[in-house]
Amino acid sequence: MILDEIVAVKRKELRRAKEERTPNDLRAEARSAEPLRDFAGAIRQEGEVSIIAEIKRATPRIGVLRENLDAADLARRYQEGGARAISVLTDRVFFRGSAEDLQAARLAVNLPTLRKDFVIDEYQLWETRAMPADATLLIARLLEKRQMEEYLALAREELHLPILVETHTEKELELALDAGARLIGINNRDLETFQVSVETTARLRPLIPPGIAVVSESGFGRREDLDLLKHLQVDAALIGEELVKSPDPTRTLRELLHAHPRNPRRH
User: What is the residue range of 108's domain?
Assistant: First the structure.
């Protein structure tokens, strides 16, 4: 299974990373990093479904999504189109991403950035804060309850880093809620079969109590999809492949949002 391969590679990468930059050095960098932008506040807009626009160079399933992708330029196009936040894949081996992509995107706009990677060690949370990214992802499927509780507590109490916990099943959602997650992602893509169904969000959304921000991930390409999410009282949609592959991401975003052209906000 692809997740097993990814985790095996992550373990090797972590061993090398800890040799090159010790946990103590990394913690010192994280504590001196610049202030974070408000990710949760950006995506929670009364009566709207916000879009988190993703920068993703490739996927294991499809391969390269956009030749010669310029992370800074794409981030600016996303901001001009009305995105509320930017998600950046930083996995190198399977998605061809990098911390440099995230840093370039964040410097180019004034939107908060979400780091998407495969977190299996608290070292990666400190790494995220040091980049700096304004939020990061935990995949419930990869973690035991104790790990998730520890990572959420570290993020909340020391790093002040928002964590989006990604779920796909009722069991994963229960795990995330029991661990204290305040930002829940519902991935419409089954990571075993790669089949996508927005029905996953329709099924899980009613199980999430009030006061918790909800992000629906994968499978969006039409305005009608966002209308459904609004009906389901979902706060944001995370959209990647549709935007990355678009010849005009700004226009695609505006069409999805029914937004009129506006002047981009300056950094």
Answer: 2-257
pLDDT at 196: 87
Instruction: Tell whether 117 is covered by a domain.
Output: yes
Helix (H, G, I), strand (E, B) or coil at 227: helix
For residue 214, give the 3-state DSSP assignment: strand
Is residue 56 part of the annotated active site? The answer reads yes
Q: Checking DSSP bridges between strand 58-59 and strand 63-64, what pairing results, if any?
A: antiparallel
Is 54 one of the catalytic residues? yes
Annotated catalytic residue: which of 187, 188, 216, 242?
187
Q: Is 245 known to be catalytic?
A: no
Residue tagged active-site, from 80, 127, 217, 241: 217
Selecting among 166, 172, 241, 242, the annotated active-site residue is 166
Neighbours of 155 (CB within 10 A): 21
Count the neighbouring beta carbons within 10 Å of the beta carbon of residue 105.
Answer: 26
**Chain segment 132-189, per-residue pLDDT in tens:** 999 999 999 999 999 999 999 999 999 999 999 999 999 999 999 999 999 999 999 8
Residue 263 lies in a domain: no
pTM here is 0.93
Report angle CA 163, 243, 184 to the nearest 5 degrees.
Answer: 20
**Would you say 95 and 59 are in contact if contact means Cβ atoms under 8 Å apart?**
yes
Kindly state whether residue 262 falls inside one of the protein's structural domains: no
CATH code of the domain covering residue 97: 3.20.20.70
User: Residue 67 domain-assigned?
Assistant: yes
Give yes or no: 116 in active site. Answer: yes
Q: Which of 56, 80, 127, 188 is catalytic?
A: 56
Count of the separate structural domains present in the chain:
1
